[in-house]
Amino acid sequence: MVVQTDPFVEKVSELYEKISNLESLKPSKDVDMLFTELVLLCTPSNPIDVTKLPKNIHEMRSKLIRLCGEAEGLMEKHYATILGSFDNPLDHFDIFPYFRNYVKLSLREYNILSQHCSSEGPNRVAFIGSGPLPLTSICLALYHLTSTRFDNYDSDAEANTMASRLIASDPDLSKRMFFHTENIMNVTTELGDYDVVFLAALVGINKEDKVQAIDHLAKNMAPGALLMLRSAHGARGFLYPIVDSCDLRGFEVVSVYHPTEEFINSVVIARKLQVNEIASIALE
Fold it and tell me: What is the pTM of this model?
């Protein structure tokens, strides 16, 4: 048990111990109960700065985020398997317990994005770390960006197979939504084709990997293109990695949204700088 006097951190530490001792992180009564308790603990507004916690708490937080990511991936595969068994999976998405949250969040993200895009919207979008249940891509494509092409990248071939099955029966989405089994660090020139690149919250769970991924995007995205990524703020930093403005080298941050309602993730939008802008900053 991590020793810490702060009651909130003590409670997080207790939940971490319980979660780390589970035999499996696949969806079950115990798994669902513990992660629900963790989310309810970390979601209310809390002034804590997780980046300034002691080393032992910082290490616990990193391990907890990894466990959250693993559990989220297993949950998505579980529901993608169920949905994939239907002839028309899109008609049954409400089986997934957080589907309505994704619908609301995609609307919020679209509204934020539309303030910085042309009125026609983006022509091509890349989603990095789409997973087996790519609800953000699907919600945006279905309800908001109805003529945009979506290229979804994930390093897990099984996840891409499951995801592609979800939209295969839809005549529109199957022509606009594509899945690529690639480590994004191996994708270079293709990144220059996108107007908007989404970076999933769990791509780069530790700080070093997250910054490496962002630097790779800065090197290969087209000047003026938008990077949209999910971050975390305050106590929610125990659930997801935090992206700071200083991590976005080669980009200009144009919008930061920290939720105060049921949404967990913060949303950051940054514009890829022009070559002359990067040079100007370097001279300052």
Answer: 0.90
**Quick one: tokens of 227?**
């990077």
Contact (Cβ atoms closer than 8 angstroms) between residue 269 and residue 113: yes
Largest CA distance in the chain: 58
- Are 18 and 34 in contact, with CB atoms under 8 Å apart? yes
Radius of gyration of the chain (CA): 19
pLDDT, position 3:
45
| Domain at 98-283, CATH homologous superfamily | Vaccinia Virus protein VP39 (3.40.50.150)
> E strands along the chain, which residues?
124-128, 149-154, 177-181, 196-199, 226-231, 251-257, 266-272
Give the C-alpha separation, 236 to 46, whole Å: 9
For residues 210 and 268, the answer to whether their CB atoms sit within 8 Å is no
Cβ neighbour number for residue 193 with a 10 Å cutoff:
14
**Whole-number Å distance between alpha carbons of 137 and 176:** 11
Ramachandran area for residue 199 (φ above 0: left; ψ -120 to 50: alpha; else beta): beta
**Interval 82-101 mean pLDDT:** 95
Who wins on pLDDT, 90 or 121? Answer: 90
Single out the residue of 254, 150, 135, 130 nearest to residue 196, CA to CA: 150
CB 157 within 8 A of CB 132: no
CB 102 within 8 A of CB 135: yes
Which distant-in-sequence residues (6+ apart) come within 8 Å of 180 by Cβ?
A: 151, 152, 153, 154, 160, 187
Domain boundaries, the chain: 7-84, 98-283
